[in-house]
Known about the structure:
Layout: E1 3-9, E2 14-20, E3 25-31, H1 41-56, E4 63-70, H2 78-83, E5 89-91, H3 94-101, E6 109-114, E7 118-124, E8 127-133, H4 145-161, H5 169-177, H6 185-192, H7 196-201, H8 203-211, H9 215-239, E9 247-251, H10 258-271, E10 276-279, H11 284-297
Parallel strand pairs: 1-4, 4-5, 6-9, 9-10
Antiparallel strand pairs: 1-2, 2-3, 6-7, 7-8
Amino acid sequence: MGVIVGIEGGGTKTGCAVLDEQGTLLAYAEGGPANLNFVDEATQRHSFETAVEGALAGIRAPVIAVGYTVAGTRANWAWVLQRLGDPPAYPVEEARMAMLSTGVEEAHGVAIIAGTGSLVAGFRHDALVMQMGGWGALLGDEGSAYDVAIRALRSAVRAWDGRESETQLIAAVQRYFGVNDLRELVPLFYQQGVPRHQIAAFAKSVADTAHQGDTAAIRVLVQASTELAGDAITCARKLFQQDEKFTVALTGGMFHSPIYGAAFKEMFALQFPQAELRQAVMAPAVAVARAVWQRLTHPTP
Length: 301
């Protein structure tokens, strides 16, 4: 008996899942960030090693196949494959991984990823036919955790100056970044540098502040969510009729926020009332492994 390994390298964390030949999840582990647009190759390798070694600990069965997805432009997989015994390797698109993570076996609809970064993609009858976004933190990533964090930071510093109303985002920034005077953020960000994944992780504090009723934090979540929803609607309009039935996969950590998710769903449902909006039911790396399992057990002619 052999096992199938799925690896997903994201902007904040790397996941590794191990399935048996029946598609049952045997193990799962995580490492750090792996997007080479924002971390160096040594960091990426360490993230992969942590996830892979953690997931395979105690598993003696040979690896018969590996699937991989990585955010960004590239990854060095040679040493990973060597560690796994050089099994057949299959790349899995981020968008397909997103669809599969919601439990959809055949992709027909729009996949949205709102994690550290963001991405919108369209499928027709299991074929990936369109992709929007995925431009990274400097050129895009609207609606992502990084985008939410930056919007909240800007709102907080404006409130600190008195240019906006008082907000609990100030206290959230002070706690998360370990500063008293928000002016301390200037050397922290511009001289020392704050890694992108650490900035993105601040989005959870923003969501927590919003759920406590803070107006500014709620505004940040709603604005980011509706901007991404607008992109998803644009994609859907190019592929589907308004009354057509199709799947909308809502994946990534931002959809864990009820406020963020509700704003997205409300805006999208107004335009496509027949669409089925689904959220993830499995970790991304598990979806990657299942994509490979499907390929091995149900090969296309």
